[in-house]
Amino acid sequence: MGGNQPDPSPAYRTELCEEMSAAIRTVGICGAGGTMGAGIAIVAARAGFDVICYDAVDASLLRAAKQSQAFFQKSVERGKMSEVERDTVLGRFTCTTDIGAMAACDLVIEAVFEELGVKQKLLGALDSVCSDHAIFGSNTSTLSITEIAAGCKRPDRVVGMHFCLPAQLMKLVEMSPGLLTSHTTFKTAWDWTVQCGQISVKTQDKPGFILNALLVPFNNDAIRAVEAGVADAESIDIAVKAGLGYKMGPLELIDLIGLDTQIRLSEAFYPVTLDPRAACPPLLRRMVAAGLLGRKSGRGFFNYTGNTMFGA
Asked: Is 252 a catalytic residue?
């Protein structure tokens, strides 16, 4: 028989890579310049892993690095780690705008914009630079893992790993296998989250998984309550915290994740659910058009004097 042989099947490649994928030593974070990516990087470095932070924008990486330094400095000030421990953890970080650096990673977690095309394009680029044993994790909060995985040639090694914001403080990770995700990939990624001290739950590859299936409509309801004049933002958040026992009100949470992010979540979630509560409220679009993005811009539903990460 002549000619080119077909690529190994996903199952065969998984078998070949099983031993290698069991040991994750270096973790790559794509989109590390954002709040979500920076938080996941903190989780990984704090757990003892070498972390390579990639972002296409150098200024975003620099800002995230400063925020991470401030986070660990606050941990020192609160007596939760020594200065030596802080320096050791910070020494595990490498920042780069060269996606080729991801070649050294055993696990790469993407935390880029919540747009299917953007995520698929990134996985396609990673496919060409990463070793065969590398696992790709997606921090998507609403999109299909199976559809994201279609952007690369290793859908068996793609798994949903949705960290909650802020990742460096919140323990929950929603772990979601796509239709082609192998058992070995899922278990390896799951075990890694356990090593990081996280609390993982398995979800199906369905819109919003658990949290955002509940939160996106709920947060939009809170915005519509402001828009309808039911009460101001502060009163709504006080009522939710005092009456429901939440640590953070919905409008505070939207300010934290970013009003522009809430729009992207709504736009990703609504078309696949047709839930009218998931549709983006007009007030949200007006506020983003005015540059009121929440904490990262200094003003959203509330005003902020600084733009720093929460301390541990």
From this structure: no
Query: Which class does domain 10-202 fall in?
Result: alpha beta
Q: Does 176 participate in catalysis according to the annotation?
A: no
Mean pLDDT by 10 residues, the chain (312 residues): 39 43 84 90 95 93 90 94 94 95 97 92 97 96 93 97 91 96 96 96 92 94 98 97 95 94 89 92 98 94 70 43
- pLDDT at position 26 is 97
Whether 174 is catalytic is yes
- Each domain of the chain, given as residue ranges in start order, spans 10-202, 211-295
pTM of the model: 0.82
Q: What is the pLDDT at residue 269?
A: 85
Is residue 132 within 8 Å of residue 105, measured between CB atoms? Answer: no
Pick the CATH number of 211-295 from 3.40.50.720, 1.10.1040.10, 1.10.287.3510, 1.10.287.1080: 1.10.1040.10
**Catalytic hit among 75, 138, 212, 219:** 212
73-94 burial: b if 16+ Cβ within 10 Å, else e: ebbbeeeebeeeebeebeebbe
pLDDT of residue 306: 55
Active site residue 141: yes
**Angle made by CA atoms 116, 93, 17, in degrees to the nearest 5:** 60
pLDDT value of position 257? 86
Q: Which of 162, 200, 219, 266 is catalytic?
A: 162
Please tell me the distance from the alpha carbon of residue 208 to that of residue 229, in angstroms, as a whole number: 28
CA 283 from centroid of its chain's CA atoms? 26
